[in-house]
């Protein structure tokens, strides 16, 4: 009996190892490239022979990258904050209140989740040019909020349906005011859901490439994924590979941190929103 | 005091909706009777409705304003000759743009490439995703590590992953290109497409697996035990017990992944820029708009892609009926 369980454990261990390696190889590879010196960059070795931080130093010296990083962080944070606030309001209503038009809203959110984003690129390009929003932060924040809202609404309403709202009533029976009941009882219970949603929405905004490349034209609002694709090196003969890789690693770090610290939350957020939605 | 008292003063511009709702005074669920407010139920109900609309209005407005209006505007633009390089020649041309696009070989090549990528990646992802879901769900050791590792492809910026694959397959620089020594794989059509699909599959299999894992969690363990007591093999347990229970989750995952795959853009942009006829429909729509500055043709492609996605979604919903997402919302807890 003990024998079979060790064997089973070994087998699972092996399978797990395959999954982990498969998932990590491209990430490790781009990290490896970012630490290579220009001379060894093209040696095709997975592990750098000579390590250097020069690529990182170089990108942080250029305005192009630093500006893009500021844009990426600012735009993603603002869009996340707005989407989570609007999403929380709507999700609370969907989970807790009974009103006509609820199903319509859920349907609209579902439609937008399926919406081909490229279909919006042409009209938004023209509309934003006329409104003066083209190549500005709001010009990107608006479509991000729009496409993040279905995700936020589905995830949050799934969370809110699980919150034991009777506790609110119980707290009020015990003499708490409406505000106290909300602050002391409901908010702590709902906070993990809101937080998880914020992470998912942030990842979505952080990852976007299509809108960012279509609706921006200068460093004013270009985000890092777009700046990456424009890196060309100082001269025609300078290979931008090292710089691209270093920049790529920089914008991957927050994602890896999120995943490391909040794995459980992200999994539950993604699955609850998708299945119950 | 009660939650409903606050918005009662605020007025929602309901207009037509209000008259529609007055007709359907549905039976009030019993649990509402124990609300603290003493006012007649109907007033309580009306306050609840107002609060509901008030809370949903901002989200609904943003979503409709940023998608609804532009898509209609896109239809309008697609009926015009409108090239930003020659703005003076802007004129209404009816369906000419559609004729131009639909008789164009580039469009159909891109359409074929998109369909190929969609079908192959979704099929492979379904199989791999199911495997990964089983591993994440049932593994005896290191479940946290596997789940964390699997989330990295989901979370990572697509452009970053695409650059990683590009350098991996670039001769000289890359560890993979050196394994398959001859030639540069990203300069030939078949191998380029294969690499694009590989990058897509790597990136999105975890998402598929997570959705499937949620379905797996619904399979009752007792049922599996009972089946295995009755002598069902592992394969039989999988096909006869697990798959039927998971069907809704599988369909949701398939629908979302199919629509997502159809929009493929980032990977192609970075890996090949659409060289050697590897453009997807999103890619050529982007090229016509941003590189070609041809709003008329770009909008026409936007509308056509929108229609294609609508057809795919419609077929899914029709084929799978009640299993489609949204249709059972609210009933399931």
UniProtKB/TrEMBL annotation, chain A:
The chain crosses the membrane at residues 12-31, 68-92, 104-125, 137-160, 181-204, 241-262. It is a multi-pass membrane protein. Its main location: membrane. Residues 69-262 form the ABC transmembrane type-1 domain. PROSITE patterns: ABC_TM1 (PS50928). SUPFAM superfamilies: MetI-like. Keywords: Cell membrane, Membrane, Transmembrane, Transmembrane helix, Transport. The keyword Hydrolase does not apply. Pfam families: BPD_transp_1 (PF00528). It is found in: Cell membrane. CDD domains: TM_PBP2 (cd06261). PANTHER family: INNER MEMBRANE ABC TRANSPORTER PERMEASE PROTEIN YCJP (PTHR32243:SF18), MALTOSE TRANSPORT SYSTEM PERMEASE-RELATED (PTHR32243). Belongs to the binding-protein-dependent transport system permease family. This is Sugar ABC transporter permease. It comes from Micromonospora qiuiae. The lineage of its organism: Bacteria, Bacillati, Actinomycetota, Actinomycetes, Micromonosporales.
From TrEMBL, chain B:
Residues 1-18 have a biased composition (Low complexity). Residues 1-43 are annotated as: Disordered. It is found in: Cell membrane; Membrane. It is a multi-pass membrane protein. InterPro entries: MetI-like (IPR000515), MetI-like_sf (IPR035906), Sugar_ABC_transporter (IPR052730). Belongs to the binding-protein-dependent transport system permease family. This is Sugar ABC transporter permease. The lineage of its organism: Bacteria, Bacillati, Actinomycetota, Actinomycetes, Micromonosporales.
């Amino acid at each position: 009996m003990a024998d079979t369980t060790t064997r089973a454990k070994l087998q699972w261990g092996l399978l797990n190892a395959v999954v982990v390696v498969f998932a990590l190889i491209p990430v490790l590879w781009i990290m490896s490239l970012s630490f290579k010196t220009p001379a060894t960059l093209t040696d095709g070795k997975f592990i750098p022979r000579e390590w250097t931080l020069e690529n990182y130093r170089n990108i942080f010296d250029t305005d192009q990258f630093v500006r893009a990083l500021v844009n990426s962080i600012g735009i993603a944070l603002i869009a996340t904050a707005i989407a989570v606030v609007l999403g929380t309001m709507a999700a609370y209503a969907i989970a807790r209140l009974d009103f006509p038009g609820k199903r319509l809203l859920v349907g609209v959110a579902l439609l937008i989740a399926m919406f081909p984003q490229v279909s919006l690129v042409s009209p938004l390009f023209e509309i934003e040019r006329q409104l003066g929003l083209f190549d500005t932060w709001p010009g990107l924040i608006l479509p991000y909020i729009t496409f993040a809202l279905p995700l936020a609404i589905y995830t949050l309403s799934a969370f809110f349906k699980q919150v034991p709202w009777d506790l609110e009533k119980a707290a009020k029976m015990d003499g708490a005011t409406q505000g106290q009941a909300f602050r002391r009882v409901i908010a702590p219970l709902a906070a993990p859901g809101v937080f998880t949603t914020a992470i998912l929405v942030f990842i979505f905004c952080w990852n976007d490439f299509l809108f960012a490349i279509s609706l921006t034209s200068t460093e004013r609002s270009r985000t890092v994924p777009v700046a990456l694709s424009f890196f060309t090196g100082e001269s025609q003969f300078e290979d931008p590979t090292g710089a691209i890789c270093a920049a790529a690693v920089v914008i991957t770090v927050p994602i890896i941190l999120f995943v490391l610290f909040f794995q459980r939350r992200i999994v539950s957020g993604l699955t609850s929103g998708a299945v119950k939605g | 005091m009660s939650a409903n008292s606050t918005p009662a003063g605020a007025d929602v511009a309901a207009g037509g909706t209000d008259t529609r709702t007055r007709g359907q005074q549905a039976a009030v669920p019993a649990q509402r009777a124990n609300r603290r407010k003493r006012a007649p139920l109907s007033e309580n109900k009306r306050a609840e409705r107002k609060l509901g609309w008030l809370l949903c209005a901002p989200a609904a407005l943003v979503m409709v304003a940023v998608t609804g209006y532009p898509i209609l505007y896109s239809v309008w633009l697609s009926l015009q000759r409108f090239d930003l390089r020659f703005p003076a020649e802007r004129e209404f041309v009816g369906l000419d743009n559609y004729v131009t696009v639909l008789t164009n070989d580039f469009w159909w090549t891109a359409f074929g490439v998109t369909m190929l990528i969609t079908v192959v990646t979704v099929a492979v992802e379904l199989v791999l995703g199911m495997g990964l879901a089983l591993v994440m769900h049932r593994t005896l050791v290191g479940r946290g590590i596997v789940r964390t590792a699997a989330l990295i492809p989901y979370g990572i910026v697509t452009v970053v992953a695409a650059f990683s694959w590009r350098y991996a397959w670039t001769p000289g620089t890359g560890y993979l290109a050196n394994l398959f020594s001859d030639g540069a794989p990203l300069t030939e059509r078949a191998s380029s497409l294969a690499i694009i699909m590989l990058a897509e599959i790597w990136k999105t299999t975890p998402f598929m697996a997570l959705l499937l894992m949620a379905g797996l969690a619904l399979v009752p363990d007792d049922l599996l035990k009972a089946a295995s007591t009755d002598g069902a093999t592992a394969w039989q347990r999988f096909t006869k017990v697990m798959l039927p229970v998971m069907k809704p989750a599988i369909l949701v995952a398939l629908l979302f992944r199919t629509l997502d795959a159809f929009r493929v853009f980032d990977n192609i942009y970075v890996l090949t820029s659409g060289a050697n006829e590897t453009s997807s429909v999103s890619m050529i729509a982007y090229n016509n708009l941003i590189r070609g500055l041809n709003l008329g043709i770009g909008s026409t492609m936007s509308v056509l892609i929108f229609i294609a996605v609508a057809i795919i979604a419609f077929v899914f919903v029709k084929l799978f009926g009640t299993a489609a997402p949204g249709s059972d919302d609210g009933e399931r807890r």
